[in-house]
Fold:
Amino acid sequence: MNYLKFIILIIFCFFSFFANAENSNNELLNKISKNIRCLICQGQSVYDSQSDFAVSMKLVIKKKLEEGSSESQIYEYLKNQYGEWITYDPEFNKNTFFLWLFPIFIFVIGVWLIIRKTNFYKL
Amino acid sequence: MNMFLRSLIVLLPVLILVFFAKILLVDDEIKFKDFESKNFPEFSLNDLNGDPVRAQSLDGIKLVNVWASWCITCLVEHPFLTKLSGQNFKIIGLNYKDDLNNAKKFINEMGNPYSEIIIDNDGTISIELGAYGIPETFIIDKNKIILKKFVGPINDQSLKEIESLLK
Structure:
């Protein structure tokens, strides 16, 4: 009877391991596709879109995950195919430095204006 | 409030507006500018008759055209592809997510400019090629390196560019 329990436990662990692997792949697929732009629809991620190309893109990401590619390898692959544009999280480089620095510049100007306008030092 | 501060308050929103307008307007240019030469992806797919397509079928191929029978722009582009095939251009058709019967009907009615038609049923090879939509045409050299892609239908204007690339 104990042997039977042991075998059932082993089988249970075996299947739960694969179910877990499947779930983590699906979670990663969702995470990546949320950060990839839909190719033909404006302002939507691949995750949100049901367009033909978005569905194909999800299949390619899934295939890459099943082949054992990591998240960063998949981003690199897609950037290689479609350029930096494809991700919602652009790297800091000579084309994007303005995008990253401009909000900081605006923030500094804003703080400076508030200080000037409210006579901050006299409070 | 001094003059500098006043002009800054007026100018800043204008600057921000111009900045974002510029970003939005050049978005498409950024999108298509990043293309770099790369190898044609590996594939194992079938042709229109269900027979497997061998990698050797790509030997000597100069153009790969992504098309589908449901795509109206492909219908408009088709006579130009027929003209190109008449000029000894070897074209491979990559049939994107299509109904096989509709694709056969399209070819029977409109003529077949393709030396081979590959069926990309789930669209993954088109993505691995780097396609944005259909129709789209890729120029490949004798070493199976993709030299350029044309997004949208090709025409006489594109032909000049294709010829200069393949010289």
In short: The two ends of chain A are 81 Å apart (CA to CA). Chain A is about 65% helix and 0% strand. The longest helix of chain A spans residues 2-34.
